[in-house]
Write a structure and sequence with these properties.
The chain has 149 residues and is an alpha+beta fold. Helix content is 42%, strand content 39%. The chain has one domain: Nuclear Transport Factor 2, Chain: A. The protein has three helices and six strands; from the N terminus they run H-H-E-E-H-E-E-E-E. The radius of gyration is 21 Å and the shape is elongated. It starts with a helix and ends with a strand.
Length: 149
């Protein structure tokens, strides 16, 4: 009887340890995705929208723009954001919610964004606000890139 209790205790301990490790990977991923999302937004403000999307897009990225337009891959994203309108635009966002898988290799964010278009004198001529949703994937080198936006 004592052996059965001991075996059950060991199994319970191993199970709890595995759960703690999963939570740890998840918590670590949430922190890393948060940092990536904030750095992405900061880069867009400092170096431009195109540079930020180029840097943070995964090779297999898909972005939805317009009503029903999907843009595939880094080259497609680069071409889309090469349009001159993005050089006169300001895009700011901040995540309101961040979640990650238990394995710590996939996650998503959503929050609010503000898009502003400026004229040649720097005056805001157009503004839009909305909600964004991004899916992030941990890359082989340990960095986080978005695969859906």
């Amino acid at each position: 009887m004592l052996n059965k209790i001991l075996v059950l205790a060991v199994i319970l301990f191993i199970s709890l340890e595995a759960t703690a490790q999963q939570e740890s990977a998840k918590q670590k991923a949430v922190k890393e995705i948060t940092a990536a999302e904030i750095a992405f937004s900061k880069m867009a403000a400092e170096k431009g929208i195109g540079a930020a999307f180029d840097f943070y897009a995964a090779a297999d990225v898909i972005i939805k723009r317009g009503n029903d337009s999907l843009i595939y891959g880094k080259a497609g994203v680069h071409n889309f954001y090469s349009n001159d309108v993005f050089k006169k635009a300001l895009l700011q966002w901040s995540p309101d919610f961040i979640e990650a898988s238990n394995s710590g290799d996939l996650g998503y964010t959503y929050g609010k964004y503000t898009w502003q278009l400026k004229d040649d004198q720097g005056k805001i001529i157009q503004e839009a606000k909305g909600i964004f949703h991004s899916v992030w994937k941990k890359q082989k080198d340990g960095s986080w890139k978005f695969v859906w936006d």
